[in-house]
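Hi team,

Below is the intake form for Ribose 5-phosphate isomerase B from Filimonas effusa. Please confirm the fields before the structure is written into the shared record.

FORM ID: S-0412
PROTEIN: Ribose 5-phosphate isomerase B
ORGANISM: Filimonas effusa
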Amino acid sequence: MDTTFDLKKPIAIGSDHAGFEYKDATVKWLKEQGLEVKDLGPSSAASVDYPDFAHAVSAAVESGKVAFGILYCGSANGVAITANKHQGVRAGLAWDSDVAKLIRLHNNANIICLPARFIALPLALELVQIFMQTAFEGGRHATRVGKIACQ
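The structure came back. Fields below:
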């Protein structure tokens, strides 16, 4: 099981209308760091259905063509629920730095879901940074993560 992200691969990102501004700001911020980003939409703040974009990011993560995924919506619950329907996805909802670290460290999450209506943009970017830089601890957690999939 991989413990860190391969940042030579692009990062997939998507949102709904509530997370659109944060998504665009995160894309810009990641590109400023020299990272490749696959923006899977939406392309405006017009009302959209979050599952369409959560499925697109999740499929990209599941395929292994991207390093990891980032999803924004109002509460982040809708995108997290949708993303976790994909067998190869472990999407974690993060609202503070400890949670962003633990979803990687203990759960080996490969998508971070962020609640745009409940956290400020600087915090969202900090949480993405923590998520990217935290490696999966493995050990006893690997056994638990191995029991997640319904196969």
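SUMMARY LINE: The domain at 11-145 is CATH 3.40.1400.10 (Ribose 5-phosphate Isomerase B; Chain: A,).

Thanks, M.
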